[in-house]
Amino acid sequence: MRTPSCLLPLTLDSAVLNLSNITDLSPLPDHILIELFLRTLRAGKLTERVLKLFIATGKDEVFSLIQELNIQVTVNPVLPTRTLNSDLTSFMNAWRPIFSRFHLIIVKDLDLKEEIKIPEGFNLDVYEKPDIDRLVGTSTSIIFSGYACRYFGYLVSRKKYIISVDDDCLPAKDNKGFLVDAVSQHITNLTTPATPFFFNTLYDPFTEGADFVRGYPFSLRSGVTCVLSCGLWHNLADYDAPTQALKPEERNSRYVDAVLTVPARTLMPISGINIAFNRDVVGPALLPCLRLAAEGKFRWETMEDIWSGMCVKVICDHLRLGVKTGLPYVWRNDRGDAIASLRKEWEGVKMMEEVVPFFQSLRLPQEATTAEDCVVEVANAVKEKLGSKDPVFARTAKAMLDWVKLWKSVGGCSSSPGA
Amino acid sequence: MATVSPTPLLKDELDIVIPTIRNLDFLEMWRPFFQPYHLIIVQDGDPSKAIKVPEGFDYELYNRNDINRILGPKASCISFKDSACRCFGYMISKKKYIYTIDDDCFVAKDPSGKDINALEQHIKNLLCPSTPFFFNTLYDPYRDGADFVRGYPFSLREGVPTAVSHGLWLNIPDYDAPTQLVKPLERNKRYVDAIMTIPKGTLFPMCGMNLAFNRELIGPAMYFGLMGDGQPIGRYDDMWAGWCTKVICDHLGLGVKTGLPYIWHSKASNPFVNLKKEYKGIYWQEELIPFFQSVTLTKDCTTVQKCYIEISKQVKAKLGKVDDYFNKLADAMVTWIEAWDELNPSAAKSAELPNGATK
């Protein structure tokens, strides 16, 4: 029940929105500090930097709250570099207000020869071919080149949440003209429940100003853990080459102000351009395993993320975990020539005709209770049912098993069962 | 793709069905959009009360006496003292499309301040295909400025015919009584600029406040159940119709869309009155959802009527033990289909699902 607004709550809400400009919280009286802490937490804005600010006040109440609530801020944007762009300066400067408070992992595409240029002022780790070779060795069939280099970043991260953005994307603006904090929105998506078992016509019921509608069963209102958040793209939408070639001038300018849970057993093309996930729970299920024979350096010449996404969704449905789609948007720069890409053989497009029915009918056994178990089951099913249709599937199945092995040895502790 | 052609008016192919118990003043605001169309007004409550229809509208009006006269003993399937009686309007209509709206719903404005022609948007939704077999992350792929995303199989890009267009509401949201009691001041201010197909196999709560459908494709499934006077439940009429409709659409390969258009919902009903009406429904829906999620329709259910009769049998078999109400409801569902076929004789034969998209 909302009471009429008075000055104190308005001030606190304003403070939460402007946290990036606050450098010292110690002048605040204790009770206001605690209230600010709780509101920051509820708003999903308790980042490492902000947490440090609260800790720096030295107040006991803050420490005991942190202890009680078992707070761990763990976000890790992973940035793969593109072969055409070794100079990350303008990209990182554009994202600075949003990324600077997090630990970044930059993974250099194996095929990129030039030195990468990174501006100052970020807390980051960079991984290049020698690091990858050292950690992964040569016995694996996984090749961390092209768009797949980001998965190395997923492998070595030790944080709970990972956000991954293509480096031809910049922060977008919302329908009021404000810069979208994509990281914050992804975290909100991952830290509020998903509702895959029944569709809510007002979309995300946990967002401000919305709720479950009449007719939504009460037993389904607590939802399930959301482990994957799929964002969208303004300007150059993620179309395949034929579509983009047919509509060369089309740019996506529509801001759809919604986040929604993708229903259980509903599949969709999950684009890797702007995603976030809970590494602890589903890390192994995001996998760099399908490599097209003519895989290229433009998104519309790949299917690796689409394949990975189908696996993740089937696994999430099996483990009763949620996947959300919608906000946040990023702004994707124009790049590449769709018509030039049309000259390549349409492997990926043709492949989807086999892949979709396969995943739609895939059912995993009850005994598979972790993401690793599920990946192994999917790999076996791929080999059995798709292996004979095209050699790429047999290779993919093997790569999936290799990935699980790699995850177990390099990826740290194994994933937790569906939360 | 193609240049944007103006949306056809369909004024001779669409009826607007409005249930009312008070007055129809709200029609004044809708006049610029509704005047070309024929209205079917279903008057609930006391038939001796005269409902005034604003000048200039072409309409037919039915009160309880008319319903009893036309349907005879079959009138028992039409609810009394509940807006569920509106489904009589669907049955009596001879048109291809129906738009139904509540009498406390007004014209909303889009974010640019322009009045929303809800009927035009519903027509657009119904005339263009749905995509229930694979979710498109950019929502409606046929819309201006959007398309199918990378990875969407080409074989699924033609879509299927759209049977239902479910619109939304700004201002007073369609909450149940407990939610209304906890958040009496919450208003829906978010304009979500999207239309999307509800995927196959997914159920949703269908609200009858701002709803359009292709009567030829799905009409007989739009029975709004037994509610109101003499019934243990209210405010679940549209929910019931929605669950039956979605199961049948999934079986017959038809599409259900939700999202735009918005209307402005002005009147919040009394949450305590609502709680009394919904009370049983809130418990029963815990059984109803698993029931609908597991309904199976065999291959020989090739028409909406056959699907519906089959569902009524399963209602009796599986829900009869939840409450005797469901035995009565199952019987009423059969009565409804009989009445529908009587009033729509040629439709009974041509209701076999056509191949290809409807226009």
Automatic annotation (TrEMBL), chain A:
Annotated keywords: Cell wall biogenesis/degradation, Golgi apparatus
Record localization: Golgi apparatus
An example Gene Ontology molecular-function term: UDP-arabinopyranose mutase activity
Segments traversing the membrane: none
This protein's record includes keyword Ion transport: no
Single GO biological process annotation from the record: UDP-L-arabinose metabolic process
GO cellular component terms, semicolon-separated: cytosol; Golgi apparatus; plasmodesma
Major localization class: Golgi
InterPro entries (UniProt xref): RGP_fam
Family: Belongs to the RGP family.
PANTHER family: UDP-ARABINOPYRANOSE MUTASE 5-RELATED, UDP-ARABINOSE MUTASE
Protein name, per record: UDP-arabinopyranose mutase 2
Organism: Hibiscus syriacus (Rose of Sharon)
From TrEMBL, chain B:
EC number: 5.4.99.30
Catalysed reaction, written as an equation: UDP-beta-L-arabinofuranose = UDP-beta-L-arabinopyranose
SUPFAM superfamilies: Nucleotide-diphospho-sugar transferases
Coiled-coil intervals, chain numbering: none
Organism: Hibiscus syriacus
GO cellular component terms given for this protein: cytosol; Golgi apparatus
Entry similarity comment: Belongs to the RGP family.
Family annotation (InterPro entries): Nucleotide-diphossugar_trans, RGP, RGP_fam
Chain's role: Probable UDP-L-arabinose mutase involved in the biosynthesis of cell wall non-cellulosic polysaccharides.
Annotated site (Required for activity): R150, R157
Gene Ontology BP term (one): plant-type cell wall organization or biogenesis
Localization of this protein: Golgi apparatus
Keyword Isomerase in annotation: yes
GO MF: UDP-arabinopyranose mutase activity
Presence of the UniProt keyword RNA-binding in the record: no
Glycosylation (residues): R150
Full protein name: UDP-arabinopyranose mutase
Keywords: Cell wall biogenesis/degradation, Glycoprotein, Golgi apparatus, Isomerase
